[in-house]
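Tokens for chain A. Residues wanted.
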């Protein structure tokens, strides 16, 4: 029997929180065993398949960020479907700290995460912290999308 199975919602939330230590350092080593080998991942930037590619993506994020924190605001589990509402507080080397707000839909299969779809507005949340860009970006979004 594989010991790396998500037991319940509290177990999943604790694993997710542990990725982002209080020091701001990111460590995915405790969470990666809970992902299925064929994980399907998609977000606003990319789509990939396979645990090796997913792990490489997490490493790129960790290297780009000067500091990274992750806050879970709400989470729900129904059957094998998990929804998590989160806030990622990130500071890049050349930009101020900013929050990216989003949610994730996870599909569990045999206790492992088989699918993960992240939803967020990366540029809007980052530009909101840069006064000139915030007004310009929001104005363009209203003009282009109502």
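Reply:
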């Amino acid at each position: 029997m594989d010991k790396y199975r998500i037991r319940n919602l509290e177990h999943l939330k604790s694993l997710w929180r542990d990725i982002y230590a209080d020091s701001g350092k990111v460590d995915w080593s405790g969470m990666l065993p809970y992902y299925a080998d064929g994980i399907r991942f998609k977000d606003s930037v990319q789509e990939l398949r396979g645990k090796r590619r997913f792990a490489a993506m997490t490493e790129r994020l960790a290297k780009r960020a000067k500091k990274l924190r992750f806050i879970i605001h709400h989470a729900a589990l129904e059957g094998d479907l998990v929804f998590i509402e989160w806030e990622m507080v990130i500071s890049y080397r050349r930009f101020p700290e900013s929050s990216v707000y989003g949610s994730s839909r996870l599909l569990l299969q045999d206790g492992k995460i088989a699918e993960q779809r992240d939803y967020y507005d990366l540029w809007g949340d980052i530009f909101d912290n840069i006064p000139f860009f915030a007004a310009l970006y929001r104005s363009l979004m209203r003009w282009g999308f109502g």
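Strands lie at 35-42, 47-49, 65-78, 81-92, 98-109, 112-120. Residues 9-120 form a domain with the Nuclear Transport Factor 2; Chain: A, fold (CATH 3.10.450.50).
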